[in-house]
Structures
1.
Amino acid sequence: MAKGLPTREEDYSQWYNEIVSRAGLAQHSAVRGCMVIKPYGYAIWEKMQAQLDKMFKATGHENAYFPLFVPKSLFEAEEKNAEGFAKECAVVTHYRLKTDPNNKGKLIVDETAKLEEELVVRPTSEAIIWSTYKGWIQSYRDLPILVNQWANVVRWEMRTRLFLRTAEFLWQEGHTAHATKEEALTETKTMVEVYAKFAEEWMAMPVIQGIKSESERFAGAEDTYCIEAMMQDGKALQAGTSHFLGQNFAKAFDVKFATKEGTKEYVWATSWGVSTRLMGALIMTHSDDKGLVLPPKLAPYEVVMIPIYKGDDQKEAVVARLKEIKTELENQGISVKLDDRDTHKPGWKFAEYELKGVPIRIAMGMRDVEAGNLELARRDTLEKKIYEQKDIANKVKHLLENIQLNLHQRAVDFREEKSQKADSYAEFKKILEKKGGFIYAHWDGTAETEDLIQKETKATIRCLPFTDKKEEGVCMVTGKPSKQRVIFAKAY
Amino acid sequence: MAKGLPTREEDYSQWYNEIVSRAGLAQHSAVRGCMVIKPYGYAIWEKMQAQLDKMFKATGHENAYFPLFVPKSLFEAEEKNAEGFAKECAVVTHYRLKTDPNNKGKLIVDETAKLEEELVVRPTSEAIIWSTYKGWIQSYRDLPILVNQWANVVRWEMRTRLFLRTAEFLWQEGHTAHATKEEALTETKTMVEVYAKFAEEWMAMPVIQGIKSESERFAGAEDTYCIEAMMQDGKALQAGTSHFLGQNFAKAFDVKFATKEGTKEYVWATSWGVSTRLMGALIMTHSDDKGLVLPPKLAPYEVVMIPIYKGDDQKEAVVARLKEIKTELENQGISVKLDDRDTHKPGWKFAEYELKGVPIRIAMGMRDVEAGNLELARRDTLEKKIYEQKDIANKVKHLLENIQLNLHQRAVDFREEKSQKADSYAEFKKILEKKGGFIYAHWDGTAETEDLIQKETKATIRCLPFTDKKEEGVCMVTGKPSKQRVIFAKAY
C-alpha cells in the first residue's frame, strides 16, 4: 500500500483527496475554489471529451462557441434561471487596472474603467445562447438547431472539492432548439441515454436513468433527466443531466419561428451537460486502497512496461525486447508506456503505476527474455501471472476487454448489494443509518414531504427512475398514494 | 458572385467582414468585443486544434488546465508582464448578485459579496502557471516541464474585429520550464518551427520566421520569435509567437531547482501561443471575391455533392449513385457532404458552397448517371470539368492534394510579388504608399528610429528574419550601421 494512503474504511473523504493528489490528477490553486488539472488528470479528461464528442456528432450535433460573459440584463431575462444562479455568480465590474500611485509596482482597479453594465461570468449559457438563437431562427427551416459547446463555467461555491465541486469547472453544454415539444422531449431523452451509454461502456460506471423531482430540477427547466451513480461509500453522485426547457427561454428572449402553416410559435428547447465532475465519479467508482483504478478505455496508457535488470548489458537486452513487444501492442491499437528510467527502482515504479491506476503492468527481467516470458499484473484484481511472449498483443487485448467488463460488473454488483426497498419510514431510516446506498421507497410527490425527509435524514430524492414496471404504493411518510418507487440516497 | 459581397478591391475590410458573416463563421455577440464562433467556423478551428495538438504531443508536450482567474497579487508579480496587460484586464470584484429591492425581477451586485482580493480574468497565464510550477519543481529531475493548455483568454480591446482582435479569444498557450538557457532557447525555436510548419502545410499560408524588435516583444519576455504572414491587402499578420522568458518568471515567483551538482538555480522558461486569430489569417490569405476559399486539410468537408434532378424518380437515381460515390470517397479518407435537400435549388447550393469555400463540388444529373460521368468544380481556380466516375476516389484525392499545394504556391507568389528591398527612406515611403507589402530595409536597431518610422508611415518592424545570409548595410533613416535587413509592413 502506498505509504500513508488512508483506506476507504478509515476515511473515505481523505482517501479520495489523497488519490487525486498522489496520482497527479489535480490540485488546489492560488484561486479560492479553482483547481489545476494536472497532465495525467487532463489526459483522462481528454479521453472522455474525445469519446463524448464523437457520440454527440453521431447524434447530429455540431460544436460552436459562445462568450464567457453574460451581460446582467440578459442573465436576468429568464427569471427562474437567474434566481437559481444569482447567488454564485462571479461578476466583472471593471476592465482596467492601473499602477497604485501610493505603492509603485502594485496594481489597483482603475475606477474610471467601470463597466456600464456588469458582466456575469457564465455559470451556464442558456441566456447568452438564446439571445443569439433569436437571430438564427426565423422559420421552421432553421430548426432544429443542435449545438454543443465545450467550455469553462464558474459557480462560486463555498465548499469545494477537487473535481466534485469547484468554482470553475470544465464541461460541455448542449443547447438545442426545436419546432415541437415532442421533438424536444425526444432530444432530452436521447442525450440522457448518450450519457448513460458513455458512463456504462467507457467509464464502466453503472448508472440509473430517471427524472428529477421538482425541487432538484435545473433552474428554468420544465423537467430534468439525469444519470445517477453510486460511489463506494454508498452515496449517490449525479453524473449528467439533460433538461427539457419547454418554451421558457424562447419566451424570455422572444424567439419565435414561422411554422409551415404560416403561424408564429415559440421555439422548444433542451440543454444537457456533463463536466469534470465525471473525473470524481470515475475515481470513486473503481479505485481501491492502493490507489487509482482506471478502466482501460479511459486510461492515458493501458499498459506500462518496467524492465528489471542489473547493469547496462542486461538493461539493453531487456529494453530492446520490451520495445519490440511495445510495437506489437501498439500495432493492435494498445497504448503503452515504457518506463526505462535509471533514476527510479522497479519497486518504486510498481507502486507508482499502481497508484496511477494503469490497467496492465508488464515486467520483464533477463531470465524472462531468455525464456520468452513476461510477468503481467492486472490492476483491477492485482493478479500477477507469467505469460509466454508469443501472441502477447492478442492476450493483452483480451485482458483489457476483460478488465473493462470486470470493473463494470464489480460496480454493478456493489450497487445491487447496496440497493434496497423500504416500506416504512422507520425501515428507511434504519437502512440509511446502517448501510446507506440507494433506497427505493414510495413518496407522495410533494416538496413538503421531500423537504421533511431531507431535513430529518439528509437523504434526497435522486430520481424517479425510468421503468416499465411501475409499482404503486403509499408514501412511507404520509401514507398518501404514490405511483412508483423513487430512489433516495445521501448524495455528493 | 454572391449578391452584394464587396470585392477586395472595393473594400477589403468590408469584404472580410461579409465573408466571416455570410459563410457562417462567426458573429458579434451581445457582449462588447466578444464573438460567437458559429458551427462552420468552429469546425475549422477544431481541425486546426486537432493538428496542432498532435504536433505538440509529437514534440513531447502534455496538456493541462489552469484557472481562469489570476489573483491580483500574483498577476502583478512579474512587473513588465503586469504592466503590459494591466490596461486591458477584465476584473472580477464580486461573487454574488441579489434581487434589486426596488425593482423585482431585476438583479444587482450584492455589495456584501465583495472579494477581498480582485481576480483578473487571465489575459495570458504565465503568472498563475509559474505560481503553480513553484510547487512542481524541486530538482533537475523535475525538469523539463512541457505543458500546453487550450483555453479562453480575455484582453479588453477597444477596437475589435471578428477573429483578428476580440476581447475574448480561444488559444493554446505552452508553458515550459528548463534547467538551462540553451534548452529553453531550443524549445523557443522548436515551437516557432512547429507553428511555421502548421501554417505552411495545413493552412497553406507561407510565413516568415524571425525575431521581434524590443518594442514588439511580449511583455516579460527576453525574446519573442514569431511567424509573419502577408494578407491580400499587403498587410502583415502576426500568426504565432514563441517567447524565451529567461528567468524572469522564475525570479518573480522564486522558482529554483537543485542542480545535479547540488547548487540552486532559477529555472528557465518559454511560452508560446496561437489563437483563433489564425482563422482571420486563413480567411484573408486564400479567399476571393466569391467568398471563402479553404485549403482541403482544414475544410470541415472537402467535397460537397449536389444532385440535379427533375421529379422523384430522377432524384432517387441520382442520389443513389452519389451515395455510392460518397462511400468510395470516404473509404479513401475524404470528408463529403451530400446536400440532397429539396428546399433549395441547385443554383442556390452552388453559390452557398462557393461562399463557404468547399474545395471540391461534385454535381450530377440524370444524364451523368447514364453516361457514367460527373461534373467536378474546384474552388481555388473555379475550373469545372467532366470526369468519368471510374476511379473517382483517386482522382479526387489527387485533386485535393493539388488544391492544397496550389493555394500555398499562389500565396507564396503573391507574397514574393509584394516583397521589396528599399535602400532609402524615400524609396521605402514610396513603396509603402504605392504597393504596400513587406519591405526589407536596414534599420539601426534603436527604438527611437523604429518609433519615428511608425509615426511617419504606420509601418512597423514585423521581424528580424532568421536567415543564413545576413547582409550588412546602413539604416535608411539615420545612416548608422545595420547588421541585417529587417521586414517592415503595415500590420493587423
2.
Amino acid sequence: MFRTNDQMLCLFESYLAQLEIPEEPALLYAPITYSISGGGKRLRPLLLLLSAQALGGDVQAALPAAVAVEVFHNFTLLHDDIMDNADVRRGKPSVYARWGENVAILSGDAMMICAYKSLSRVAADKLPRVMEIFNDMALKVCEGQQYDMDFEKKRKVSVVEYIQMIDSKTSALLAGSAMIGAVLAGASDDDVKRIERFATELGLAFQLQDDLLDSYGDTALGKKIGGDILEGKQTYLMVQAMSRASEAQRDTLRTTHSDPALTPEQKIERVKAVYDALDVARITEQQISQRFERALAIIETLSTQEELREPLRVFARNLIGRKR
Amino acid sequence: MFRTNDQMLCLFESYLAQLEIPEEPALLYAPITYSISGGGKRLRPLLLLLSAQALGGDVQAALPAAVAVEVFHNFTLLHDDIMDNADVRRGKPSVYARWGENVAILSGDAMMICAYKSLSRVAADKLPRVMEIFNDMALKVCEGQQYDMDFEKKRKVSVVEYIQMIDSKTSALLAGSAMIGAVLAGASDDDVKRIERFATELGLAFQLQDDLLDSYGDTALGKKIGGDILEGKQTYLMVQAMSRASEAQRDTLRTTHSDPALTPEQKIERVKAVYDALDVARITEQQISQRFERALAIIETLSTQEELREPLRVFARNLIGRKR
C-alpha cells in the first residue's frame, strides 16, 4: 500500500494543524500562525514525504521533518518580503505589511527556531545526519537570496551564475527535503544522492518555467504577463538574451524597463521583441524539458518498487505542468 | 586538574578562531565574521564550559556547543540592532549601520543557522536533548525581546512582568548555556536543574545591576549615566518606582523624558529625585544581593568536588563585580 499525492497532502495538513504555536506574546506568535495557515502548495513537505515513501520509509516518522521544511520555507518568505518591500503574499497582506518590519524580523526568527524544534523530533539516531542536511540546505537558501540581491546591482550576470543562484535559492530546499526524506527512510548513500539530483533538476526546471511563464504565460489564465521585465529583473530569459545580444539589443534589454517615455505595454513589447529575435523562449523551453526528462530518468534508478516511483513522477509532472 | 576562567576563555577563543566561515557571497558572510570577531565578554560560552567542567565533563567536547551559544547571542544582537536602530555595537558601527538593513536581516539569519551547524557537532547521543534545551532557550530569548518592545508602548508594567521579561531576555540564554554544559557532562537531571537555577538567578542579578548602574553608576569610570531615563525605558528602577509612587510622582516618572522644556541633565535629576524619595536604588541593590547570594548557595548543592565549584564562584563574582 502506498499513499497517493493527495492522500499524502491530507496527512501532512492534518499533522500540521496539530502544531502547537504559543499564544503569547501575540506579536511574536500570531504572525507565525498567520503564515503557516496561509496556504501554499506544500511542495517541500510533500516531496520529503514522497521521497521517504519511495525509499521504503515510515511516512509517519517523517512528518516532523516535513513540518520543519515547510515552516523554514515560510520563514524565508517572511524575511524575503521585508527585503523586497513586498506587501502581498498569497493574496493576503504580507506579515511585513500587516504588522510592520520589527514584528516581521522577530517573528521570522522565532519561526526558524520553530522549524528546528520540529526537526529535532525525528528519530534520535537519524538526527545528526538530518541536521547536517538541513543546515547546509538552509545556508544555501540564504546564499541564493544574497546572490539574487547582488544581481540587482550587477551589470552582467552570466548564464552559469544565474543557474548557480537558482540552484541555491530554489533547488536547494527541494533537494534537502528529498534527501531528508530518504535519510529517514534509511536509504543507501547512493539513493540519497540520486534523490538529491532528481530534486535539484526538478527545482531548476520549475524555476526556469516560472521565468518563462512570467513573460510567455497564458494570459487566458488571468496571469499578469511581464512583471519581471517591468522590474528589470534578472531571469533566465534575460541572461540568455544578454549573452546572445548585439550591442544595440543589449542596450534595449538594459534600459527599457527604466525608460520613462514608454508605457508598461510598450516596455514588455520591446523586450519581448528582442527575446523573440534571439529565440530565448525556445532555448528556455528546451532547458526545462531537458532537466525535467533528466529528473524523470533519475526516478528509474532508485532502488525501489515500481508502484512507489509513480507518486514521484506525478509530483514532477504536476510541478512542471505536464501531462506525461 | 581544572581550568581557571582565564584559561577557559583562551581555550574558547582559540577554538572559535578556527571556525570556518565561507567567503562568498561576501555580503552574507563578512558581517558574520565581523560580528563574531568583534569581541564581547564571551559570558555564555564561558558559563557553558565552566558548567561542563564543574559537573565532570570533557571540556573539549563541549566547545562546539559553546560556539553555538556565542554565535546565537551575536545573531540576536545583530537583529536587535535593526529593531532598535542602533548604530554602534561594542564601539564599532553595527552591522545594520555599516551594511544596511537587508544585509543585516539576511546575514543574521545565516548566523543563526551557523549556530545550529556548530551545535550539531556535539556527541550524537546528546544531540536530541541539547537541541531541545537550545530551541527552548532560543524561543524564550525572542519572547523576551518581544515583551521588551511591547513594554515601550505599555502605560504600566508591573514588577512581576518586568522580572519575567528579563528572565526571558537575559537569563534564558545563560541558563540554557549552563544546562547544555551540564547535559554534555552527563550530569544528573537534578544537577541540570540546579545549574539552571544558578544561572537564572545570576542572570537576573546581572540585568538588575545593569539597570542600577545606568542610573547610579560610577561616573569616574567614564560611563554615561542616565541613558535609560532619557529614553524613557522600562527598567527595574522605573517599574519599582511606579509601583510605589504617588499620583504626582507617577506623573513625573511618565512625562519627564519627553518634556521639551528640560535639558538632559534636568531630566535625569528630576527622575532620580523621585527614585531617591522612593528608595528604589536600595531596593534594587537588595534584589541584586539576594539573587547573587542565592546563586552562590546553589553552587554548593551541585554534586561535584570543591575545586570545580570555585571557577563558577569566580564567574559569578566577576559578573556582578563583587570581591567575595
3.
Amino acid sequence: MRRLPARADYDPAVAYRLFDEAVMCHVGYVLDGVPYVIPMLHVRADDRLYLHGAAGNRTLDAVVSGAAVCVETTLLDGLVLGRSAYENSVNYRSVIAFGQGRPVEGEDAKRDAMTLLLRRLLPPGRLEDVRALSPRELARTKVIELTLAECSVKVRRGPALDDRRDLDAPVWAGEIPFLSVLGTPRHDGAGRTDIPAPAFPDGWAGPPNPR
Amino acid sequence: MRRLPARADYDPAVAYRLFDEAVMCHVGYVLDGVPYVIPMLHVRADDRLYLHGAAGNRTLDAVVSGAAVCVETTLLDGLVLGRSAYENSVNYRSVIAFGQGRPVEGEDAKRDAMTLLLRRLLPPGRLEDVRALSPRELARTKVIELTLAECSVKVRRGPALDDRRDLDAPVWAGEIPFLSVLGTPRHDGAGRTDIPAPAFPDGWAGPPNPR
C-alpha cells in the first residue's frame, strides 16, 4: 500500500472537531522508559480533554504526573481500491496531540466534567431521566484534565492515485465507505420491563463515531 | 461512569484473535523521552504483527530501533445504559501488547508480508485481479515485523450493574450495540466504467472491523 497522500494540518480547530467526532482516544505515556497506550473515552472543552477512571486505577497516575502525554484518535472513512496491489489505501482522519494531564479536584469540578462526558455519550435527555451522581460515586471517580498543547491532523480522502498505465485494467476502482450504525437495543432483563427502548430522538445516531 | 468490571486475560491466543478482528492498531513508542502514538494498519501471523509505511517515513525508525513498543487496539461493541448517571459504560474488547520491531529486509520477505496484509484488507479475489507489486514499489515500502512478547486483553460485556435501589426507576436500561457496515461503493470516475462494483462475495462484510 502506497504512502498515503495525506496532508498535515496544524489548525487546533480542525483537531478539536476530530476529537468531538471520535468516541474514544488512545492515550500514550512513558513509565520507566517504556511506552504505554491505553484506550479511553473523552470529551473536549476548549483546548482540554477530560478523561476518567476509577479512583484506585494506578495506571492513570502516569497521565497526571505532568510528564508529556500523547493522545491519538483516528476515524476510518473507507477502503480505497485501486487498479494495482500498490494503489490500495484507507481514507481516514487522524489527530495526534501532545499535552499534559492534571487531576481534576473537588466534587463540583468533577461533576461538571463527568456531566460533559455523559451528555456527549448518552441519548439526549437521558441524563435527566436517571439518578444523578452521588458524592460517594464522584469520590470513587478519578477525573483527568488533559491540556492539548500541540495538535497535528492528517486526512486522506478520495480515490486511489492509479498509475496511468494501470487505468485500462479490467477492474472496478473506487471507495467503499465504512459506516457506523446502532443495532437493536437489548433490555437488561432487570427492573421495569414496561418501558419502551429509547427511540433516539432528534436524529440521534448514537454517541460520536464509535470507530 | 463506573470502574468497568472488565476481566484481564493474558492468553496470547485471545489477544491474537482481537488483533485479527481489528483493522487498525495504535502503536506507541518513545523518542527522546516523549511518548508518540500513531495509527497503523496491521496483519498478524503467529506471534508477530506486520506494519508498513513509506520507505522515507522517518517516524517508523523509532519502531524498528529495538526499543520497547506498545501496540493497542480496541473494539467498541456497544453503549451500556444503566438506571443512574454512574452506571453507564461501554462494552469493549481491548488488547495491549508489548514487543520489539525490526525491519523486514529483502524483496521476497517484503512481498510476503504485504500480501498477507492485502489479503486481509481487500475483498476476496481482489489481489488476483489487479497488477502485482513491482520490485520498485516494494523498494519504496518499509515493512516492519513486530514480535508480540506480552499481551493483555480486557473485555467488558453485559448490562450495567445497577444498584438494587435504582432498579425501580422508570427508565429503560440495557445495551445498544455498535455495528460497522459498508456503504455503497463509489466509482473513482477514471478508467473503465463498464465494470460493476464489487459484490462482496462469500459474505465478505468489509475488512476486519473498522472500529
4.
Amino acid sequence: MLKHFQVPDDIAVRVDVERLRSVTEQVFMHCGVPESEARLGADVLIFADESGIDTHGVSNMLRSYVSGYNAKTMNPDPQLKIVKETPSTATVDGDGGLGLMIAPKAMEIAISKAREVGTGVVAVRNSGHLGAAGYHAMMAAEQDMIGWCMTAGGKAMIPTFGAEAQLGTNPIAFAAPGNNEPVFLFDAAMTSIAGNKIGLANRLGKEMSPGWVANADGTPDMEGGSMVDFVANTTRAQLPLGSTRELGSHKGYSLGVMVDILCGQLSFAPGFNSLARTRRAHFVAAYSVDAFGDVDEFKENMDGMLKGLAATKPMPGHDRVYYAGLPEHETRIERRETGVPLHPEVVEWFRGICAEFEITFDLA
Amino acid sequence: MLKHFQVPDDIAVRVDVERLRSVTEQVFMHCGVPESEARLGADVLIFADESGIDTHGVSNMLRSYVSGYNAKTMNPDPQLKIVKETPSTATVDGDGGLGLMIAPKAMEIAISKAREVGTGVVAVRNSGHLGAAGYHAMMAAEQDMIGWCMTAGGKAMIPTFGAEAQLGTNPIAFAAPGNNEPVFLFDAAMTSIAGNKIGLANRLGKEMSPGWVANADGTPDMEGGSMVDFVANTTRAQLPLGSTRELGSHKGYSLGVMVDILCGQLSFAPGFNSLARTRRAHFVAAYSVDAFGDVDEFKENMDGMLKGLAATKPMPGHDRVYYAGLPEHETRIERRETGVPLHPEVVEWFRGICAEFEITFDLA
C-alpha cells in the first residue's frame, strides 16, 4: 500500500498478531456473535491487518461493527438462507449479518459447486460490510481454484459527467494460485481510491491527492485538497478509477456498475433497482482449475508469469515491480514477526472497549 | 465514444450498413473463409461500425485480417476443438482461426452449459483477434443471461513502476439485459486507452492526451505528445487504466493481469507462462439469470437501475449522463439510417481490394 496510509513508525504501537486476534474475537462475542463466527470475523480482519491493508483491519472497521451491533442494525447471529440454487449457482440471503462472516459461507458453497460441476457462482443479498474482499477470493485459491469476490452498497462513486454519487466504491477481488510464488491476489475499489482510505488518511492528517474526489458541482477535483473539507462536505463524491473522461473514468464507472449488477441485481437485493440500497450485496465465484486442465501445469505456468512480472525492468526511481498480492505477502511475513503497527488512538479505543466489555486488555 | 476518434463530418463518406456488410463478407470469402463464417465475421465487424466503435470495425481491422490470411499466419477454416469439459466449463483450442468467429462459438457453448447447470465458462487458446468483445458478451444478454468476454495477447501495457510492456491491452466486456432499456454493455481495454485508438487517431492526425502512454524510460507521460512519435518509438508502452500509481494505475495493471490469467492461463495457451504470447486467448462466460431468480423481475430491476443512472444530475458543461451501451445503442439507430461514416482513405482501400479480389465495389 502507499506509505501515505501507514501509521508513522515514530508513533505506531506494534501489537502482536495473536493478541490482536484474541481481543477482536472477544469483542465480537461480547456483541452477541457466536464463538465460531467471532473467530471467523476476527480472522478476516486480522488478515487485512497483517497484510498491510490497514483500511480494512481492526483499526478502521471494528468500531463501526460494534456500533452496528449496538444499534441493532446488524444481526449478530444471522441464519444464512439459500433462496434458490442450481448445480453451479446459489442465491443467498444473509439475514442482515456482517459480510465478514457471510461471504466465507457463500464462498464455501461456490467452492463445493465448483468441485462438482466446474464452477460455482453465488450472489448474496441482505448482508453487511464484507471486510477485505481478498480474504474471500483467497479461499478459492487455497483450493486450487480461481476466486472472485465483489461487494456493492451505499453511494460514494459519481458517474462520469455526473454531479451526484450513485454507486458504492464497489471493489473487485480476484485470486489465482501459483506453485511456489505468492498467490496473485487483487483487491481494489473501482473508485480511484478506497472509501476507507479517506477515513484513515483523515486520522493521519493527510491531504487528498488530485483525482480522488469530485468538487461540489461534480467536476473532477484535479487539484487535491484537505481531508477535513471532504469529510465535512458530503456532496464531494469519489471519482471512478480513471478520474476524468480523458483518463478513462468511464471504465471505472462501468466496472462499478458491473459490480452492482453482479452483487445487487443478481441477488435481487432490495433497493438496487432504484439506486437506493439499504444493505450490502456480494458476489463470489470459484472456477476449479482442474475443470480446465492439469492443476500442476497451471500453477507452474502461473509461477512463470508472476516471476516474469516481478522481474520487469523498473522505471527510474523504483527498484522493483510488483504484482498484486506480492507486497501484501511480504508484509504478512514481516508483521507476523514484528506485530501490527496501530495508531495510539486505536490502542486507546481498544483499552476503552476492553474496560467496557470486561475483556482483558493486553495489547500495550 | 470520444469525438476525438470520429472521422470529421466534412470528409466522412457515409456508407450503407448492408452494402458494407456484403462487401466485407465477400472479402472474407475471398480469403478462404467459408460462407457461414464470413457472414459471422462480417456481423461482428459491422456491429462495431454501426455502434460507433470505429476502432474495431472494418476501417481499422479488416485490412489486418486480410494480411493475416495472405501471410498464412491465420487459419481461414479452423476446426474448433473442445480439449476438456465439465458440466459448466470448457477449454477450447481455436486452431489458429480469427477470434471474431471463434468467440461466438465459445459463447454458444457457454450459453448452452448455463442453460443446463446455471453457468457456463469457456477459456479459448490458439485464436486470433477478437473484434469488439462486446459483441460476444451481448450474445448472452440476448438469451437473458449475463455475459462476459475478455481477450489477452501481445505486449502493450506497462506494469505500474515498470519500464517495459508486459501485457496486452486486455479488454473486459460485460453485458446484462434490461427489459425496455438498452442492454448494459461495457467493453473497454484495461489500458487507459484502447490500442486500436492509437492507429485511428494517427490516421486522423490527432495528438495523444496525457496519461495514455509511457515515456521511453517507463515513466508516465502526463504531458501528451504526437501520435507519430509514439508509433515511431515502440518502447513507449501504453499506461494501465489509472495512468499513475497515485491515480490508481496498479488497479488497471492488475485487472490486465486478471484478464491474462482468465484467458491465457485458464486455457493453457502457449507462451502465457513466459509473457511471450504468440497467439491470442479468450475467456467467455454466461450466467443464466433464471438460475438466480425470476427473469422478468431481474429485467425490470435492471431498467430501474439503468434509468436511474441515465437520470443522474449532470455536471456543468454536460447535459446528460450515460451508462455503458447507451450511446452505442443510439449510434446504432442513427447509423442504420444514415450509414457508417468512413474515412476516404478506407473507402479507397475497399476500392482497391474489391478490384484485386474481383468483388463489385458499390460503397461510393
